[in-house]
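for the recovery benchmark. tokens below, seq after
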């Protein structure tokens, strides 16, 4: 009896569950056209490795939501992806709540909460800079060409200042989380500027062993070395037709975020093939 209870406790400590929902409008604007959002029920959702070459699991949306569950020996980063959205998640013990929309949000466990908090602060900065730029642009419309040039210089200065503040935020997060996936995520935002594996390694000199040995860094190094190609995600990459079960990958292609394999968590909310006919 005691052995059974111990086994159950150990299993519970490794169990994870993902509860997913969607937050998308009934219509979206695509250029000058408004497209109707189709029903999501029956759409397949994928749990995919960071390299994109391994479909870990898949499920189907029912009543506007989806669920994954399983156990994990050690936490790992992966993607949750569908036809129009993709985001990074940390599989770790506990209940993870996912919202897929124009952005991607995962909360409920320590690493996912930390990553979402970082993304939230970056989004606030983004809104602030957007407001400042729109204000400057509006004021410039009535100016002479010379005055407009001056405003453009001001806008450039605002963007540079914003970039420095965001980099400071990312750096402080990376330094505060040397041995968890919040730090790995922050480091990979840092590493977006690396153009080759040599630059990558030089940037990682101050990183912890946990970060340097992470799957995310290994995948980034593989991309920079040309061992993996950055492609969009398509269900057929996993041998799927309709509601069939995954048959395994046909190659390295898989879900990739628009700014790199470990880049911003936000969704790739652009697949116009998903949306129904325009309403006007």
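predicted aa per position
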């Amino acid at each position: 009896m005691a052995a059974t209870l111990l086994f159950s406790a150990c299993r519970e400590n490794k169990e994870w569950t993902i509860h997913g929902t969607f937050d998308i409008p009934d219509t979206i604007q695509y250029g000058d056209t408004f497209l109707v959002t189709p029903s999501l029920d029956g759409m397949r959702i994928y749990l995919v490795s960071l390299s994109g070459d391994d479909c870990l699991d898949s499920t189907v949306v029912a009543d506007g939501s989806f669920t994954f569950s399983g156990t994990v020996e050690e936490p790992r980063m992966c993607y949750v992806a569908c036809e129009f959205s993709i985001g990074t998640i940390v599989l770790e013990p506990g209940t993870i709540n996912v919202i897929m929309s124009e952005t991607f949000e995962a909360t409920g466990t320590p690493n996912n909460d930390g990553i979402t908090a970082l993304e939230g602060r970056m989004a606030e900065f983004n809104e602030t800079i957007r407001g400042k730029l729109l204000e400057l642009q509006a004021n410039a419309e009535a100016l002479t060409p010379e005055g407009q040039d001056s405003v453009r210089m001001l806008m450039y200065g605002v963007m540079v200042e914003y970039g420095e503040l965001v980099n400071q935020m990312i750096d402080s997060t990376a330094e505060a989380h040397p041995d968890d996936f919040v730090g790995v995520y922050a480091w990979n935002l840092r590493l977006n500027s690396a153009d080759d594996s040599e630059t990558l390694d030089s940037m990682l000199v101050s990183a912890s062993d946990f970060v340097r040995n992470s799957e995310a860094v290994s995948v980034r190094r593989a991309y920079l070395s040309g061992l993996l190609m950055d492609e969009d995600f398509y269900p057929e990459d996993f041998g799927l037709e309709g509601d069939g079960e995954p048959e395994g990958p046909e190659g390295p292609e898989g879900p990739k975020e628009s700014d790199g394999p470990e880049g911003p968590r936000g969704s790739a909310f652009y697949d116009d093939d998903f949306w129904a006919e325009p309403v006007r």
